[in-house]
Structure formats: structure tokens, C-alpha cells
Amino acid sequence: MYTRHAMAQSPRIHIDAASGVPAVRQIVDALRVFLVEGQLVAGDKLPSVRRVAVELGVHFNTVAEAYRQLAAEGWLDLKHGRGAVVVPRVAPDVTDGARNDSLRGRLRGLVAQLRAEGISADSIAEELRAIAKVVTRS
Amino acid sequence: MRLILCIVNVFIGALWYALPNMTRRELLFAVPVPPDFRQSRAGRHAIRMFRRTILAVVVVAACAVLLSPAGLLNATAAAAPFAILLAGGIGFRWQNRRLAPAAVQFTRPREAEMTTAADRLPWFAWFAGGPFVLLAAAAIWLYLHWDGIPARFGVHFGAGGQADRWAERSIKAVYGPLFLGTELCVWILLMALAGWFGSRRSRSRPVMLGGSIAVEYLLGLLFALIAVQAQLGIPVWVIAVSPWAILIPLIIVMTRKMSEPWEPMDPTPNECWKADILYYNPNDAALFVEKREGLGYTFNFANPWSWALLLGLALVVASAPFVMA
Q1: Are residues B28 and B90 in the same domain?
Q2: What pTM, to 2 d.p., does this model score?
Q3: What is the complex's ipTM, to 2 decimals?
Q4: Start-to-end C-alpha separation, chain A
Q5: Mind listing the pLDDT tens digit for each residue in B168-211?
Q6: Comparing C-alpha atoms, which of B324, B319, B322 is closest to residue B176?
Q7: Nearest chain B Cα distance for residue A76, angstroms
Q8: Residue of B113, B117, B266 lying closest to A12 (CB–CB)
């Protein structure tokens, strides 16, 4: 879904039409990873909807919708004529109980989906541990 | 002249003959196949059948041009290349249908760089101005030598190389070819720019731009020669042969460049290819995509700009009777 490149390079999003996941979701997920990991920071401008749509082979509306979803989450500012600009975002305040329930439910859903795709439990656990290390460092 | 006509026919036939080798390894008669398919029995059989068809028609066409009576030469000269093109088209489509069951769907992720850096044209894009300089130079030369232009000169030539239509010296008759040449070069330039900015970034994209600029030079040279032909007494065969001086190296270079396995094939959906030749995908924002037959790129006909560009060409062609004598 995404790759990390050397710091001098801009991040690149990948979408796979054969994956069965809607293109708009692949774009939103990939961009959100860059935003969370700090590869895209406040003030960064995103390329035009037209350019991204041509490169990814999707309709303009697909990219526009992805940008709109990220704007609704508070990551982007979509002022007319300025394009999409990354803005500082404060994570919404969620109570511990609700957060844990939501987190656990979503992770279990993801693990189940990965298991259904044939990925072994050991591989999933290993990846989760690796991600946990990155998350605790940041 | 018969020999030149014969060579032109053989050359058209040679292009058809070489067509299976002028595409990527993953394509055969516009059908997406595994890269090693063309070495398989079915692949080799399809290529062999196609080439035999072409060879037979080229031999007949060449003999017709060489042996036809003088009275039928004009008709034969017009019919021979048409017959070769038709045979090639039918043969291609025939093999395309035969190989259709072997088609595979290219799948690979597409990527987009999240940068706002300008999508700059390569340095050689400046050469696109050359043909306009050539046409302008021809216009200036004609202006300076106006008195030397014959009062009546040939504007159309038969297969024997003899003029069969004439025009009086006038602004329209003298400068007409230059106007039309300029219109065509402007259209090619627009196509080249639309191709650059309307297609996915790839290593094939500069090749396409370079090829478009070369075609621009071909047209600029051709129409400049036509314009000064009467004044300089340039033989018709020189005008007939000169475009090939650009076309042949262009085909060779583009074939080598485009068939290099430097990038995987663009994974355009098979179902969006009509007859495996016309691409129509409303869900793809690209205006141009890599062709599945021959060299270069083709329109995404679901993009309205493709129709605007074709309308532009139709207007250029329609303007010919108005700008030329």
C-alpha cells in the first residue's frame, strides 16, 4: 500500500487495482500513514487531483474524494485555488475505555481479515511487534 | 518512378511484416500474453501466418505496380498500398481474435509521487520549434524570390512523376503548402504536449515526445519542399523519398526504445480495450496510454480532450481546400 523512501524523496503512494480494496480507501490509508509517520507535515502541499489521478489511473473524483475524507479527519485544508495543504492536527480526545474497545475491535477485525487471506498468525504477530516498536518510539 | 512506387509498397509491407516485433514482449497482435508466449508453438504459428499473408499481398502489389500498363499506373499506384494496408489490418485482426483466449490481465500496483514539483518538459522539447523555423525560412525565401516563381506551375503529380494539375502564381498557390504544414505542425505539437502532461510518468514518455517532434520535422520538411518545389525544380521523387529519411530512423529508434523491457506494462484493464486497439476507460484520468499494437501511445477515448484533439485534426484537414490552391 505504501513505501518509505529516502528523506530527500517525496513519499509515493501505491494502489493495486487487483486488491479488491476500493481505490479511494487505498489512497486515504496510504496518505494517512504518511501523515501519521510525519513524512507529510503541516505546510506540505499535496499534488493536484488531476496529477495524482493520472498517475494512479483512477477518476479525478476518486482522488478528490480521498482528499475530502482526509480534510474531514482534520489532516488537510482544501481551500479553493490553493490545492490540498497539510495542516496541524490535534488527535480527538477519546476516553480510555472507548478507545481500548475501538482499538481492540479494529485490530481483531484486521487480524481476522489477514488470517482469512492466508497470512500466518506468526507473521502477523511479528509485524504487530515491529509496528509497536515504531509507534512507541514516535 | 515505378521502382520508387514499388519500393514504397515493399516498405509498407516490411512495416507490417515487422509489426509483431515492434511491440513489447508481453503483447502479440494487441493481445496481452505472458512474455515467453511468442516463443511457444501457438505464438510462432500466429506470427508465421500473419507474415505469409503480408508477403503474398506485397508480392502481388509490387508486380502490379511494375507490370501494369501505363494507362492503369495511377490506379494501380493508389490501389497497391491500400491493398497492403487492408491485408495487414485483416491479418492482424484475424490473429488477434485467434489469440484472444490466451490473453492475461497485467496486474501491478501503480504509484504516485506526493510532490508538487513541476512536471518539466525534457531539454530536447525546444527542438519542437525547428519545423516552424524551417517553414518560416521557406516562406521568406519564396517572398524574396517571388519573381522567379513560374507564372504557372504543377501542384499535383501522377504516379509517373508528371504534373497533372496546375496553379497560377498567387499567394494561396505559393504559400498554401506552408500554411497547411504549419497547421499540421501546430496540431502535432499540441498532441505532443497533451501526451506529455496527459499520460503517466514513465520512461516511455520522453520517447513518445521525441517521436512526436520527429514527426513534426517530417511534416515541416515535406511541406517546405513542396512549397519551394516549383521554384527550385525539385524532382517529385525527391519529395516522395525525403520523409522516409526521417521515418525509417524514427521507426528503428522507437522500436528499440519502446520494446526495451525497462518497465512493466501499464496494467490497463483488458475490458477497457475495444477490439484490443481503442482504449475507453471513464475511470482513468489519463488522456494517453501506451498502445497495445505498434509503437507509442493512444487516446483514452473516454477523456473528452481526445475528441477535442481529433476535432482539431479534422479542422486542419478540412481547411486544406481553403488554404491551398
Answers
A1: yes
A2: 0.82
A3: 0.81
A4: 21
A5: 888 888 999 999 999 999 999 999 999 999 999 988 899 899 99
A6: B324
A7: 14
A8: B113
